[in-house]
Amino acid sequence: GKVPASSILASAPSDKNLDAWRESGCRTTHCNLEVLQESTLVFLATKPHILPGVLQEIRPAVGPHHIVVSLAAGVTLQTLQRFLPAGTKVLRLMPNLPCVVQAGAMVFARGSGAGDGEAALLKNLLSSCGLCEEVPESYINIHTGLSGSGVAYVYLFAEALAEGAVKMGMPSGLASRIAAQTLLGAAKMMLETGEHPAKLRGDVCTPGGTTIHALHQLEKGALRATVMNAVEVATNRACSVAKD
């Protein structure tokens, strides 16, 4: 809602990828260079293996007034700067899926040519899509393991939570809605109170109550260690993709 749709120009090789942009009222083209000619802030949202060819194509049209933001996984700032003219204002952004419902978690890092103004502009624009934080580039692969892939861990947990209720006799649709609202409420409390999750977890537990008995079962299943291991392997995979 911060930019009128008519101010956005999207480019893609096929009409199929442009339909959603047209339906939103954005202008479209099949020419990447046209985007550079008409825009100041340029987002590069391609598959990593396609990005070098796109960078070579647009390089002649990139000027000092452009701000180039890459969403390509694994493509470093150093690589982006190598393909673009010296001094280009380059930033690297990593979003996650819930951005589509304005509840995303995004991190970005800036290249040597980008200053505070470019970082503030990007953060302000993306704040309408959720949490947006500037980080050192080394954190981007960790963010992939924590939040990019982490969305799937949460869906798996939500599925198991709901299935537990179904096992005990609750209808599936109702169980899924309550599981989703439980996750939403718990996350909102973490963000709004600023409390450590261990403190909030302790607040739910009463001596000899239902929660501490359930938590004991989760600890028996090594839930905490398993989730930590999942973040670790996803981060390492993101690092290896970057090297490929």
Automatic annotation (TrEMBL):
Which InterPro entries does the entry mention? 6-PGluconate_DH-like_C_sf, NAD(P)-bd_dom_sf, P5C_Rdtase_cat_N, P5CR-like_CS, P5CR_dimer, Pyrroline-COOH_reductase
Q: State where the protein is found.
A: Cytoplasm
* GO CC, any one term: cytoplasm
Annotated pathway, please? Amino-acid biosynthesis; L-proline biosynthesis; L-proline from L-glutamate 5-semialdehyde: step 1/1
Q: Which UniProt keywords apply?
A: Amino-acid biosynthesis, Cytoplasm, NADP, Oxidoreductase, Proline biosynthesis
Query: Reaction catalysed by this chain?
Result: L-proline + NAD(+) = (S)-1-pyrroline-5-carboxylate + NADH + 2 H(+); L-proline + NADP(+) = (S)-1-pyrroline-5-carboxylate + NADPH + 2 H(+)
Which positions in this protein are listed as binding NADP(+)?
45-48
Coiled-coil regions in this chain? none
Does Cytoplasm show up as a keyword for this record? yes
One record GO biological process? L-proline biosynthetic process
Q: Name one Pfam family in it.
A: F420_oxidored
Q: What is its main location?
A: cytoplasm
Enzyme class of the recorded protein, top EC level: oxidoreductase
For this protein, what is any one GO molecular function term?
A: pyrroline-5-carboxylate reductase activity
Using the record's annotation, list all stretches that form the Pyrroline-5-carboxylate reductase catalytic N-terminal domain: 7-74
Q: EC number(s) on record?
A: 1.5.1.2
Q: Domain Pyrroline-5-carboxylate reductase dimerisation, which positions?
A: 137-238
Write out the function statement from the record: Oxidoreductase that catalyzes the last step in proline biosynthesis, which corresponds to the reduction of pyrroline-5-carboxylate (P5C) to L-proline using NAD(P)H. Proline is synthesized from either glutamate or ornithine; both are converted to P5C, and then to proline via pyrroline-5-carboxylate reductases (PYCRs). PYCR3 is exclusively linked to the biosynthesis of proline from ornithine.
Q: Which NCBIfam families match?
A: proC (TIGR00112)
Q: How does it assemble?
A: Homodecamer; composed of 5 homodimers.
Q: Which family does it belong to?
A: Belongs to the pyrroline-5-carboxylate reductase family.
- The name on file for this protein is Pyrroline-5-carboxylate reductase
Q: What is the lineage of its organism?
A: Eukaryota, Metazoa, Chordata, Craniata, Vertebrata
State the gene name recorded for this protein: Pycr3
